[in-house]
């Protein structure tokens, strides 16, 4: 029983990280129709911004405080990267989806090369706060505290994004602009600026995912964002392209399936089980590729 509880909590924690990685991707696609293959670059930028910030702060400063400051810096960096990418690369190509894919794939490859050129290819260790290294005893199982942190952040983010889209003027403009952009612009509303805000928000969420995943892995590396992006795409497809709630459910399902398969089958089978889950969903529900909202 204790082993099963440990696996379930571990799977939910991993699923929370997958949701953090996929939510920005789902938001940008669902509201703007942009399939952003450079999303992993946003995560990498956030992870390295946090690592540089923590490394630059005095070692006498508590690791938890350094991490908090690093998260704030990463959110700013992720937002700026998202806005610059939207304005410079995506805005001229809103009606050219193939070109969008090519540009974002090229940016993804170029960003990895740039990070390797600046920081090198070797991973760097990331300091982890003492409270996130501990465990808590629940029903005889020693559960890692950091999994609960990831889970709490993911749930707060989901609630915040849904509230933003459903109960704020910005969310109303975003949803109206997606449905009928011409009519909204005729009312004097700058839909283009609103879409830029969405891209910046997606960049900030991706940066947060990059920071927390580096805490999970214990290191930061140039290829980290790309590897996490693969699972983010799988989660988005399973959950329904553009559906935040579907993305959340799919993320937790993928995390649980992966951990259960690794424990009860064999190490490494978890990745295969995720691919099989994706194939099963596409066979039974091919409409997941057509998109959904909220």
TrEMBL record:
CDD domains: TM_PBP1_LivH_like (cd06582). GO terms for cellular component: plasma membrane. Keywords: Amino-acid transport, Cell membrane, Membrane, Transmembrane, Transmembrane helix, Transport. InterPro entries: ABC_transp_permease, BCAA_transport_permease. The keyword Nucleotide-binding does not apply. GO terms for molecular function: transmembrane transporter activity. It is found in: Cell membrane. This is Branched-chain amino acid ABC transporter permease.
